[in-house]
Amino acid sequence: MVNLTKWSGLVATIASLVVIVLPAFFRVTHPQALTSLLLGEVAAIALAHSAYRASSGKQAAPLSIAVAVVSGLILLVSPLLLSPFDPFLTIMLGTSVLVLAGGVLAGVDRIRGGAAGRQTGAERIAGN
Predict the structure, then answer these.
(1) DSSP string, 87-114
(2) How far is CA 65 from CA 59, 69, 102, in A?
(3) 46 neighbors 103 (Cβ within 8 angstroms)
(4) Which segments cross the bilayer (predicted)?
(5) Continuous segment of H or E residues that includes residue 118
(6) Residue 61, SS3?
(7) 41-63, pLDDT tens digit by residue?
(8) Is 15 exposed, middle or buried (0-12, 13-18, 19+ CB in 10 A)?
(9) What whole-number distance in Å separates Cα of residue 56 and Cα of residue 66?
(10) Rounded CA gap, 46 and 126, in Å?
(11) What value does the CA radius of gyration of the chain take, rounded to a whole number of Å?
(12) The dihedral sign for the CA sequence 90, 86, 76, 38
């Protein structure tokens, strides 16, 4: 579960970075551009923190999980409400689902995480 959390956190962080730069390629409303920029940055920080903690043998922090899930939900709904046009909407929905999944998987790992989630990376490698 630790590797799944680590890699999903990395993919979700990259998806958050895509959300940040996406309004530069499409003509979107000002509120949508701000929403994508601000929530994308917050989600990227939270997800990168969760991925870092998973790769260093610690469980994700509850605040990072909550921030990633809330940011993912808002990013998922925002293009439907603020600027619903086809290419932007499709890309935003796809990347927002990745952001949301990264936060949810970090939360599942925190709840279900066993001894492997509390080992350092060196301890996991030595055990293999």
Answers:
(1) HHHHHHHHHHHHHHHHHHHHHHHHHH--
(2) 10, 6, 9
(3) yes
(4) 7-26, 32-51, 63-82, 88-108
(5) none
(6) coil
(7) 999 999 999 989 888 878 888 99
(8) buried
(9) 20
(10) 29
(11) 16
(12) positive
Q: What is the pTM of this model?
A: 0.82
Q: Which amino acid is at 40?
A: G
Neighbours of 7 (CB within 10 A): 15
Token representation of residue 76: 């998922």
Which H or E element spans position 16?
A: helix 2-21
Q: Please write the tens of the pLDDT for every residue from 68-95.
A: 999 999 999 988 888 778 888 888 999 9
Residue 29 DSSP SS3: coil
Measure CA 56 to chain center: 18
- The beta-strand segments (E) located in 18-64 are none
Query: In this predicted structure, what is the pLDDT of residue 48?
Result: 93
pLDDT per residue as tens digits for the range 96-109: 999 999 999 988 88
Pair 93, 76: CB distance under 8 Å: yes
Place of tokens 């990395």: 10
